[in-house]
């Protein structure tokens, strides 16, 4: 193994940075800069360039120059302060801000949470109104508390200084200590950041880099540049801190190593994705990970890194994967606000990553894989684009293995019209003619062996092509939904080949559980011929079903959208429910977790009569949640699960309400329709057509909660919310709906349970 590079070697490799900064100065992008790079626990580059000041006097830049770090205040002061209070149990991230600041609830802000403020998903406007004169902290706080949202919380990323003005007020209120004093006592002093503070004293003046001329023609020198922060007196949650590169290096190293200021758990929480899971940007708590503001990450540092920028020309980027940090401090706005450090930041980060031999530990590699992989980063730009795959399903793989697992066996098969091989042959026919395989029984799930029946009255029959008896395992009683024990005693193996919908309340999943139980009792094997999850294996969404609420649409505690195949579910059921059947999963070949059905190369076959295409399957986890109530979801029309209506709904009113919610991935169009089956058959219904606009950013189960909430608010006398419980199977979510809580807040409250489930399901995933 080669010895680690010396500091001299590091500096030699990083000498390329000198010319990058000098060019930026020559191009009048910046007057000067201090650049500090840390790697593997030590500073490997630290230099000053150009001038600290050009007007009204000229002075050279020095490495100890103190800068107005502008919006770096958000992550240097405000975010650590809030996270300390979270660690102490004085603040909860998912609590509404009004719990701590009641007056913040003005103008419809009662459902905005602390997390929404930290991630910039509050829906608040970007800044306070500066169009009229005002001054004073209390006036600024009052304006922030009375601000009106421009979008519902959790729906849009809007970078907002108001978010962090409110967070500073939150620290004031909860700690009982003025915000600047709190930060000095609990962050700056413990970290030894001796030249970091709000409102720097006069004796620091000679070291401070000036910014630009204010509206009165006075050069801002030691006075905060941000106009809102200036009006509130220089202390604000979004801007106001002055600091040096050396001090920021102490903070950066503390975030890499952990410190007494913040625990490693708090740091991990702060610097990993915390935005709504379907958002098209990645934001930590305060910190930026991957958004339009991430230019200072450059081209080579991984998305697992994090950082922030400041308007005056400052930036900090930290990469835990390679234990590297880059601090670039400029006063690009000096002297007249015409400079810019945006392109310089990206060039510096790319050059650093290219010059230093960056290597990652196994632990840190898993960090960025988790952040950039399917399970965590759920937005569209962090997934593989649709591909032209060539997936072999379980039956195809079994055929390629010459049925070796079934040779000499007496076999039954649980299947329906979706059991087809790549040549379009029924699994029934393939097994019936497989050499050495004795197919004795066919079991049909809900909708029958042909998938045509939308009733519980599906009787036994005989397959016309093979004359093998067909036994229905779907009916109105529990016994009718389970395979007969006397029949299983005549078999060696039950083979299952069904196309699932990827949704917990789709009954094929419970049928799998029942066959595993029956197989274990009968002492026979169960073989799953696996098929794709049509809505992908990357998304895990929706509330968990609660233990004790098991029924035919809820075999056990699973979220609405679990992101698993039937084979993976079977492995989980078999172990977690202590069934211990002799289970074999014949895995697919060529399927990737991010694949939607249209990336598999497989023909679409309706898994049930009312799931006729991938759009309907995508909407099903949401619209299906309310199907058990007194609304029509379009059964008996040409577009089931794309419609929602009832005779008592005003379609225009409902569409306007739902569109105002700005639910990611869908829009709503007023419509009238007359279903020929199910609820309100033959009656004219009014409601909405649900238009899928972006499936990658749709949280379908949360859509279902939005639908239920809207109906309960608009039609409290007509809508029977209580009927949702059979499918919802979660009392806390139901109680929140009855209390009128915002759907976004309801969804936030199930995220911890989802994370626990994701850890559990990891043991059973076949396809990585």
Q: Brief overview, please?
A:
By secondary structure, the protein is an alpha+beta fold. It is built from 24 helices and 23 strands.
Explain the overall architecture:
- The protein has 768 residues and is of the alpha+beta class.
- 30% of the residues lie in helices and 15% in strands.
- It has 24 helices and 23 strands.
- The strands form six sheets. Strands 14-15-13-12-16-17-20 form a seven-stranded mixed β-sheet, sandwiched between helices. Strands 3-2-1-11-10-9 form a six-stranded antiparallel β-sheet, with helices on both faces. The chain has a three-stranded antiparallel β-sheet with strand order 4-6-5.
- A hairpin with a 5-residue loop joins strand 2 (42-53) and strand 3 (59-60).
- Helix 20 (700-714) packs across helix 23.
- It is elongated and about 100 Å long.
- The two termini are 32 Å apart.
- The model is unreliable at 362-384 (pLDDT under 50).
- Gap between N and C termini: 32 Å
Total strand count, please? 23
Give the count of helical stretches: 24
Mean pLDDT across the residues is 92
Strand content: 5-15%
Q: Numbering strands along the chain, what is their spatial order in the largest sheet?
A: 14-15-13-12-16-17-20
Which oligomeric state applies?
single chain
The largest pleated sheet is described as:
7 strands, mixed
């Amino acid at each position: 193994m080669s010895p680690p590079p010396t500091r001299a070697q590091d500096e030699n490799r990083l000498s390329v940075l000198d010319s990058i900064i000098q060019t930026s100065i020559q191009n009048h992008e910046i007057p000067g800069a201090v650049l500090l790079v840390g790697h593997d626990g030590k500073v490997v580059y630290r230099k000053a360039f150009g001038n600290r000041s050009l007007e009204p006097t000229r002075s050279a830049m020095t490495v100890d120059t103190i800068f107005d770090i502008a919006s770096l205040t958000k992550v240097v002061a405000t975010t650590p302060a809030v996270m300390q209070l979270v660690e102490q149990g004085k603040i909860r991230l998912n609590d509404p801000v009004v719990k701590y600041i009641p007056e913040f609830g003005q103008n419809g802000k009662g459902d905005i949470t602390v997390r929404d403020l930290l991630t910039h998903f509050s829906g608040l406007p970007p800044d306070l109104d500066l169009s009229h004169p005002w001054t004073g902290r209390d006036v600024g706080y009052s304006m922030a508390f009375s601000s009106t949202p421009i979008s519902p919380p959790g729906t849009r990323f809007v970078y907002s200084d108001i978010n962090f003005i409110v967070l500073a007020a939150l620290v004031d209120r909860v700690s009982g200590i003025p915000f600047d004093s709190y930060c000095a006592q609990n962050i700056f002093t413990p970290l030894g950041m001796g030249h970091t503070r709000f409102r720097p004293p006069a004796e620091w003046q000679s070291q401070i880099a000036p910014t630009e001329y204010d509206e009165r023609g006075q050069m801002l020198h030691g006075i905060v540049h941000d106009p809102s922060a200036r009006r509130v007196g220089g202390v604000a949650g979004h801007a106001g801190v002055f600091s040096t590169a050396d001090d920021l290096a102490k903070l950066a190293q503390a975030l890499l190593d952990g410190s007494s200021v913040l625990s490693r758990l708090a740091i991990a929480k702060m610097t990993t994705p915390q935005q709504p899971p379907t958002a098209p940007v990645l934001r930590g708590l305060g910190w930026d990970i991957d958004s339009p503001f991430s230019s200072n990450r450059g081209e080579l540092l991984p998305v697992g890194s994090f950082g922030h920028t400041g308007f005056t020309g400052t930036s900090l980027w930290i990469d835990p994967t390679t234990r590297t940090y880059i601090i670039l401090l400029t006063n690009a706005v000096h002297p007249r606000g015409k400079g810019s450090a945006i392109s310089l930041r990206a060039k510096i980060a790319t050059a650093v990553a290219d010059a230093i031999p960056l290597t990652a530990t196994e632990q840190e590699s898993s960090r960025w894989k988790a952040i950039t992989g399917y399970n965590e980063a759920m937005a569209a730009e962090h997934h593989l684009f649709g591909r032209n795959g060539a997936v072999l399903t379980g039956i195809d793989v079994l055929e390629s293995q010459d049925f070796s697992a079934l040779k000499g066996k007496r076999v039954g098969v649980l299947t329906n019209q979706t059991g087809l091989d790549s040549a379009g042959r029924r699994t029934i026919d393939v097994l019936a003619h497989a050499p050495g395989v004795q197919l004795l029984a066919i079991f049909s799930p809900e909708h029958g062996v042909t998938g045509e029946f939308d009733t519980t009255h599906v009787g036994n029959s005989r397959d016309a092509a093979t004359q093998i008896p067909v036994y229905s395992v779907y009916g109105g009683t529990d016994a009718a939904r389970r395979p007969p024990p006397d029949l299983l005693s005549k078999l060696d193996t039950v083979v299952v080949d069904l196309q699932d919908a990827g949704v917990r309340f789709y009954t094929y999943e419970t049928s799998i559980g029942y066959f595993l139980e029956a197989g274990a009792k009968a002492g026979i094997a169960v073989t799953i011929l696996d098929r794709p999850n049509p809505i992908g294996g990357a998304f895990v969404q929706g509330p968990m079903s609660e233990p004790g609420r098991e029924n035919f649409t809820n075999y056990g505690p699973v979220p609405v959208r679990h992101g698993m195949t039937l084979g993976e579910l079977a492995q989980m059921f078999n172990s977690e429910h202590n069934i211990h059947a002799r289970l074999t999963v014949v895995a697919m070949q060529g399927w990737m977790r991010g694949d939607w059905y249209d990336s598999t190369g497989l023909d679409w076959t309706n898994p049930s009569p009312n799931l006729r295409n991938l759009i309907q399957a995508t909407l099903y986890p949401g619209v299906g949640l309310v199907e058990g109530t007194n609304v029509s979801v379009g059964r008996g029309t040409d577009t089931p699960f794309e419609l929602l209506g009832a005779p008592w709904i005003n379609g225009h009113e409902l569409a306007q309400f739902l569109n105002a919610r700005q639910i990611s991935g869908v829009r709503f169009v007023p419509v009238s329709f007359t279903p020929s089956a199910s609820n309100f058959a033959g009656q004219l219904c009014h409601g909405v057509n649900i238009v899928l606009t972006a499936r990658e950013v749709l949280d379908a189960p949360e859509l279902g909660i939005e639908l239920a909430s809207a109906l309960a608010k608009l039609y409290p006398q007509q809508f029977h919310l209580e009927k949702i419980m059979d499918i919802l199977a979660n009392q806390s979510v139901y109680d929140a709906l009855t209390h009128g809580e915002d759907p976004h807040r309801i969804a936030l409250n199930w995220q911890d349970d989802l994370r626990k489930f994701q850890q559990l399901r990891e043991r059973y995933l076949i396809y990585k």
